[in-house]
Specification:
The complex is a heterodimer of chains A (about 325) and B (about 260). Chain A is built from eleven helices and 13 strands. Chain A is an alpha/beta fold and about 325 residues long. In chain A, the strands form three sheets. Chain A has a six-stranded mixed beta sheet with strand order 5-6-7-3-8-9, with helices on both faces. Chain A has a four-stranded antiparallel beta sheet with strand order 11-12-10-13, with helices on one face. In chain A, strands 2-1-4 form a three-stranded antiparallel beta sheet, with helices on one face. The two termini of chain A are about 35 Å apart. By secondary structure, chain B is mostly helical. Chain B has one domain. Chain B has twelve helices and two strands, in the order ααββαααααααααα. A two-stranded antiparallel ribbon of chain B has the order 1-2. In chain B, helix 1 crosses helix 6, helix 2 packs antiparallel against helix 3 and helix 4 packs parallel to helix 7. The longest helix of chain B has about 35 residues. The chains are: A alpha/beta (about 325), B mainly alpha (about 260).
Chain lengths: ~325, ~260
């Protein structure tokens, strides 16, 4: 498979005006704004192959949106080495955006006062989609996302979940090879989230559409993405499959023990007691310092064990730890 | 840009113009009301001064002037600077930027859609009202065709001016104050308040070299056959060309600016 996106050593600096609090500060800022520079991206490199679904995650302000905006052609980076489908997104904008689709979950691409279907027809004209093809595609998308009634109601009267379905249709009508989804599941209920995820997966399978998704919902990542790129402080701190994170960064195991008789004093090197009740212990074992096997042996020898559960901490915890480093 | 892009956007413009039923109806009523006010204002001025002709305008000419001013006003009108300011301040500019269409055609086609709506529901009715109630003469074929051409140019000039100011929002973000100045200038120097013939001679001369009178006064006077047709149309055309050359470069800078700071 060929690379659809090539990014090398991407940098971007922003200029911001700092302003203090209060009247005097406001007046000073008016006369002489105090300008500060912020390095949003400090050299980011990655390649993405056609047909991949890639999750772009990171804490707030890490630089995710900056990357996304650059790849959508909305932002000029400070470096030049970016190729998406053979083009530099920020140059020749009109030609470039014709081949991508985008949903920015926090904002709307639809006309607020008009039904979404009006925006769909506008896209037919702007993207030069042949009428027959357009009708067929629109019908199919509306059916898949159950948006028949919704798309005929003014957008301002829709709920977030309903609107999001229309946003996704809007982004896919022209059959783009590459689709950017910025927090597509934000504010959706569980069922709506699942439906949207199913839809993304099936579109990816059928049409080989490449998806780049940013999200704070790890479920999205687990269900959708073959690969995650984690960004923090303007740098990539991880790039690879989600499972690899577990292998690489998972140094702890959670162990829950149910006891047949009240617990005695527990002491084992490399193991922390998270919670302790009379008939129950919850432990955290650092697998670099001790083996699970040794701990279990120790437990069986010294305790009246009724049940043991050994589990990984949830992925959210692992990633939260990565953010903090 | 193909004609389909244009029609698609104009369609949206029409739909946006009609989205709020009561607003559409209210603006329909507002125009005849202001026409009636001008009618009685000038009636009292003519009665008070006792003059039958003021600055080359008899009372009937004056009424016709204002009827035409309304008619031209429906067509040569644009709030594109307001749309741009709105899109920038609210962070909606990305929508247009993500669509495969240039910034200028994006706004121009949209505004033209609104104007098509205005022609049908406002301009034509006022034309008929003017002819039936205010004695507006039907111009002969040549001045009439020249008038049509002239209001198309006038629209392009008006749009161009408003659009250039709107592009200023890419740097200044809020341009409300300047928009007010823009409206005042066009209304005053364009001849909406009073015909330019009422200005002192020096101001009239200066005004020939400003774009404002070509937005309103010139099309009206073409209809009333008070100015030479060819010269006036050429002057308008020159302004259209000049403005769109400037716009071409400023729009490029604006898009570059947008992408530079990530508005």
């Amino acid at each position: 498979m060929t690379n659809i996106i090539h990014v090398k050593d991407l940098k971007k600096q922003f200029k911001t005006v700092k302003r203090g609090h209060g009247f005097v500060a406001a007046f000073k800022s008016f006369l002489k704004p105090k300008i500060e520079y912020k390095q949003a991206l400090k050299g980011i490199s990655f390649d993405i192959k056609e047909g991949e679904i890639v999750g772009l995650i990171g804490p707030n302000g890490a630089g995710k949106s900056t990357v996304l905006k650059i790849l959508c052609g909305l932002l000029w980076p400070d470096t030049e080495d970016v190729r998406v489908m053979g083009m530099q997104p920020w140059k020749d904008r009109v030609k470039y955006v014709k081949q991508i689709g985008a949903v920015f979950g926090q904002k709307t691409s639809l006309y607020w006062d008009l039904p979404a279907v009006d925006t769909f027809y506008l896209h037919r004209d702007l993207y030069d989609i042949p009428a027959k093809e357009f009708e067929a595609r629109m019908k199919r998308l509306i059916k898949l996302l159950e948006a028949n009634e919704i798309s005929k109601t003014p957008v301002r009267d829709l709920s977030l979940g309903e609107r999001m379905r229309c946003e996704v249709i809007q982004a896919l009508l022209h059959n783009p090879r590459l689709v950017f989804l910025d927090e597509p599941t934000i504010g959706l209920d569980i069922i709506a989230k699942e439906k949207l995820r199913d839809f993304i997966v099936s579109t990816n399978k059928e049409k080989k559409t490449t998806f780049i998704i940013t999200t704070h919902d790890m479920q999205d990542i687990e269900r959708l993405c073959d690969r995650v790129i984690i960004i923090n402080h303007g740098k990539i701190i991880y790039d690879g499959p989600l499972d690899e994170i577990r292998k690489k960064y998972l140094t702890d195991k959670h162990i829950e023990i149910k006891l047949g008789s009240p617990a005695k004093k527990f002491a084992f090197k490399g193991c922390k007691v998270l919670e302790s009740h009379e008939y129950e212990l919850i432990l955290e074992l650092n697998t670099r310092k001790a083996k699970v096997q040794n701990l279990i042996n120790y437990l069986l020898k010294n305790f009246d064990v009724a049940d043991i559960v050994v589990a990984d901490p949830p992925i959210e915890e692992i990633i939260a730890k990565m953010y903090q480093t | 840009m193909s004609i389909n892009h244009h029609i698609g956007l104009a369609n949206i413009g029409i739909k946006v113009a009609t989205r709020y039923r009561w607003e559409a109806i209210a603006s329909l009523i507002a125009t005849p009301v202001s026409l009636i006010i001008y009618y009685f204002l000038w009636k009292s001025i003519f009665t008070y001064t006792g003059a039958s002709v003021i600055r080359g305008f008899a009372f009937n000419d004056m009424v016709q002037y204002y009827v035409l001013s309304m008619i031209v006003g429906f067509f040569t009108w644009s709030q594109v600077d307001g749309w741009i300011e709105n899109d920038i301040v609210n962070g909606w500019m990305f929508r247009g930027m993500l669509l495969p269409i240039g910034l200028t055609p994006w706004y121009l086609s949209f505004e033209m859609g609104i104007n098509v709506y205005n022609i049908v529901v406002q301009m034509i009715p006022i034309f008929l009202i003017g002819i039936v109630f205010f004695g507006l003469p039907i111009a002969p074929a040549v001045p009439f065709l020249a008038f049509i051409m002239s209001i198309v140019f006038a629209f392009l000039i008006y749009f161009g001016l408003a659009y250039l100011l709107g592009l200023g929002a890419f740097w200044m973000k809020r341009i409300q104050g300047l928009r007010k100045v823009r409206r005042m200038l066009v209304a005053f120097l364009g001849g909406s308040f009073i015909p330019l013939a009422f200005f002192p001679q020096w101001l009239q001369s200066v005004s020939h070299f400003l774009p404002f009178e070509y937005v309103k006064s010139v099309p009206i006077l073409i209809y009333l056959q008070r100015v030479p047709v060819i010269e006036s149309l050429l002057a308008q055309l020159a302004w259209v060309i000049a403005l769109y050359v400037i716009i071409h470069f400023v729009a490029k800078m604006a898009v570059r600016r947008y992408a530079g700071v990530g508005l």
